[in-house]
Amino acid sequence: MTDTKTSLPEVRERIDSIDRQIQELISERANWAQEVAKVKGEGLSAIDYYRPEREAHVLRMVVDRNKGPLPDAEMVRLFREIMSSCLAQEDPLKIGYLGPEGTFSEQAVRKHFGHAAYGLPLGSIEEVFQEVAAGHADFGVVPVENSGQGMIQVTLDMFLTSDARICGEVELRVHQCLHSMAGKLENIKRVYAHAQSLQQCKTWLRMNLPGVECEAVSSNAEAARLARHADDVGAIAGETAGKVYGLKTLATGIEDRADNTTRFLVIGRSLFPPSGNDRTSLLITVNDKPGALYDVLSPFARHDVSLNRIESRPAHSGKWQYAFFIDVSGHINDEALQGAVKDIEQSVAQLRVLGSYPVALP
Length: 362
Ligand SMILES: O=C(O)C(=O)C[C@]1(C(=O)O)C=C[C@@H](O)C=C1
Description:
- By secondary structure, the protein is α/β, with parallel strands linked by helices.
- It has four domains: 8-88, Chorismate Mutase Domain, subunit A (Up-down Bundle), CATH 1.20.59; 94-174 and 261-268, 3-Layer(aba) Sandwich (D-Maltodextrin-Binding Protein, domain 2); 177-252, D-Maltodextrin-Binding Protein, domain 2 (3-Layer(aba) Sandwich); 278-357, ACT domain (Alpha-Beta Plaits), CATH 3.30.70.
- It is built from 13 helices and 15 strands.
- It has helices spanning 8-40, 46-49, 52-65, 72-88, 104-113, 125-133, 153-161, 195-200, 202-208, 220-227, 239-244, 292-302, 335-345; strands at 94-98, 118-122, 139-146, 150-151, 165-173, 177-180, 190-193, 213-216, 233-237, 248-252, 261-268, 278-287, 307-314, 321-329, 350-358.
- Strands 1, 2, 3, 4, 5 and 11 form a six-stranded mixed β-sheet that branches.
- A hairpin with a 3-residue loop joins strand 3 (139-146) and strand 4.
- Helix 3 packs antiparallel against helix 4 (72-88).
- The structure holds prephenic acid.
- The site of prephenic acid (PRE) has 11 residues, from helix 1, helix 3 and helix 4.
- This is Bifunctional chorismate mutase/prephenate dehydratase.
- The record marks 262 as: Essential for prephenate dehydratase activity.
């Protein structure tokens, strides 16, 4: 890009000139976003301007155009922030998540909605569903699955009793750290963490802190908060939580699996149009009778709809009734999926479309 003779001041001058152009273009973009808002109607609330399918489309174009050197995920992050700021010109979105500040859920909120959205830390996953249903939060972000630990049952069960819709998914690489106030591994007598995180770091704990007492608490950030008050207490939490609570980091990357990833769902109150690369989540309740699962699954094959995941839970509607959480490729408006749903409805107790939403971006 530069020949060896280019001096540092020359390179910086070039960077300054690019920054001026980028800044002008960002301002121009923000003006156009205001124009879009005018078309949608003035004086509406943030949620009425938000278009997840359009955002996913914009970000996919960013990925397609990316020629490096920045990785796709970085480019997506930068453009996500630009869109977040453009949208917040009206009124920032309010997003509920499992708090306190510093949780992986908060990181997922930032990954999906950017930093211009207003984060509402809540006490539990149940509360996130309640605050969204009550309209106190526009959307909520809840963990649903970990690559090593499987499904998060509290989240699935909330769909059995609430009308929440799924409007998006976020995948987050989860890097766990051990933090403490004193910063000395040999002092640690007890480790606090969320139960899932203790599971994710089982091998590391056995090898490095054998015999140390491990206690599950409501979130990793809560563990970090508790660790502030004693020198012999360690907390497993992400890097951010360690910083937020002023702890020293004793070890990083202590998760047993290198690809440790948590999938989060964005929950809201309505369905959104197709983005071009979508997933649909269905909740199907069946009675315990021979061939029940076959009757649910065979229409997908017949209509050429690919099944991404299936999870069963006891339904709350009756004894020996089962609820299947099924994710398939495509949007509920797609002809193939409509056909499959119509066939399934003939044989099941209940079928509810939880949502159709853009497949997670990098
Ligand atoms: O295209 C729109 O509908 C817009 O409102 C603009 C824009 C953007 O900045 O690109 C902003 C917010 C929406 O969530 C989607 C996209």
